[in-house]
Amino acid sequence: MKPIKSKLENEMIALNEAEDVLKSMGFSYGGNWDYDHGYFDYKLDDEEGYTFLRIPFKAVEGELDKRDTTVQMGEPFLLAHKYQIGLDDHAGAGNLSGSVNQFSEPQDPDAIIDKKWIGIAKELVQKAEAQLLK
């Protein structure tokens, strides 16, 4: 995980505004939320794992399933996982295990982040700041 300093941190923003702006930039927030907190994610890489720019937020007025909610933005960060190549050492055989454990453990759940993604993430955060902090 690599934190990205941002003027967004601790800012109060209407969820619908944040969602509209960040989705138009390519961020998603589909299943990445609970009723009181969530993340806007931007997928940067998925070659041998994945690298996401993640902007956390938490509800300060209302719940996240309603568009009139106010959220407080957190510090953006980069998150990288590297996929395990080959067979999963901890996989169990059988129908029940296969139906429950469909995915192998990541080879490195906190993989090293390539410097090119750090630069791109900083640019994306600056664009988000410019759009959301007018």
Walk me through what this model shows:
With 134 residues, this protein is of the alpha+beta class. It has one domain: YugN-like (TATA-Binding Protein). It is 25% helix and 28% strand. It is built from three helices and six strands; from the N terminus they run ββαββββαα. Strands 1, 2, 3, 4, 5 and 6 form a six-stranded antiparallel beta sheet that branches. The radius of gyration is 17 Å and the shape is globular. 21% of the residues are buried. About 6% of the residues have low confidence.
Provide a short characterization of the protein structure.
The protein has helices spanning 15-24, 95-100, 115-132; strands at 2-3, 12-14, 37-45, 49-61, 70-73, 77-82. The chain is α+β, with helices and mostly antiparallel strands and 134 residues long.
Distinct helical segment count: 3
Low-pLDDT sequence parts = 97-104
For the sheet with most strands, the description reads: 6 strands, antiparallel
User: Which range best describes the helical content: under 10%, 10-25%, 25-40%, 40-55%, 55-70% or over 70%?
Assistant: 25-40%
> How far is the first residue's CA from the last residue's CA?
29 Å
Rough outline: globular
What is the top-level CATH class? Alpha Beta
In total, the number of strands is: 6
Determine the structural class based on helices, strands and strand pairing. alpha+beta
Q: Strand-residue fraction?
A: 25-35%
Rg calculated over all Cα atoms? 17 Å
Average pLDDT reading: 82
Q: List SSEs in N-to-C order.
A: EEHEEEEHH
Return the CATH topology: TATA-Binding Protein
CATH superfamily: YugN-like
For the record, the count of structural domains works out to 1
